[in-house]
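Work package 3, deliverable 3.1, input record:
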Amino acid sequence: MRLLRKNHLGDARLEGRPFVDNGGRMNIGRDLVVTSRPVPSHLVTGPAGVLTIGDRVRIAHGVSINAQAEIVIGDDVVLGPYVTILDVDFHGIHDRDAPSAARPIRIRRGVRLGAGVVVLRGAILGDGAVVAANSVVSRAVPAGAHASGVPARPHA
Amino acid sequence: MNVIAKVRAAIARDRGMAAGALGRKIASNAAAAALAKIALRACDEVGRRARAFGSPQIDNRGVIVIGDDFAVASRFGAATLATGVGGRLEIGDGVVINYGTFVRAASRVTLGDGVMIGPFCVVSDADVDEEARPIEIGERVWLAARVVVRPGVRIGANAVIAAGSVVESDIPANAIASGAPARVLRVRGQIPPAPISGVQTKGGIREAS
């Protein structure tokens, strides 16, 4: 792990150019792969945001990760195209001009997210969980579970 | 909202921002205001103070009318505004559309004042080879990320549609709806139909902290 400076993704292998806006901290592990073709992926941290990415993580194109509190992505995680991981809603539900509280997201080792999955604030995905395409994860998914749907529910 | 009030609100909101980030934000807004005049030129009417962050795709074979204070982002995928022949897309004042969103009016699509649409949403009033059915989205409705609104749907004012939802039937005003197909979880100011994550207070439902 090494602490990153702005627009610097360690020894990551980049396909195309991702958009990186590091207003907080990013800790990136070894052998990260980020694809940004045809649509750029973007990694953003707010002033109090910490994004931690483990080793051998693979990020497909069009992925959006925005950490205003904390997002932890474990080793060997695979994020499919257009996955969106936001630990904040950006607007209050009842008063849209009110700020939304950020809650940390934990994506444990070996998790696989299908295309278009949205992970919302406070979500926790256990080791090896698999989430089907276009699902929305807003709560906990147990380790090893297969989950799908809006919101995502684990099933056998 | 006039420019002075907007700037005042922005200063209050961005007080904690680092100087560099604030500078970049001001520059990107200025560039967006300049670009909007070119990027939205295919629209029939565009109100004052429009902003385009990156170039949206405008495919106008009918009529596109846009109110004041419109903002559209295209940073990570172009937003698309399209009308078919005879189609009419009406966008109210203060509407914000995020990147990758696709809005198409084969017959008629109406977005009320203050509607907020998140990234990668689809609002299209016609499927291929099907008859178009108009879509009406009320004032201050918020569609979060990746919401799909199906033909013929009407969404009442102030409703919030959660991320990833597919809206296939009408949603009442003030509702919070989620799922595929979207169901109403609760209506603000009412007692929720079933216990869900959240804390009930005297004034209504509040999010769990």
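The interface with chain B takes residues 19, 23, 39-42, 47, 62, 64, 82, 84, 86, 89, 91, 93-94, 96, 101, 116, 118, 120, 134-136, 139, 149-151 of chain A (CB under 8 Å).
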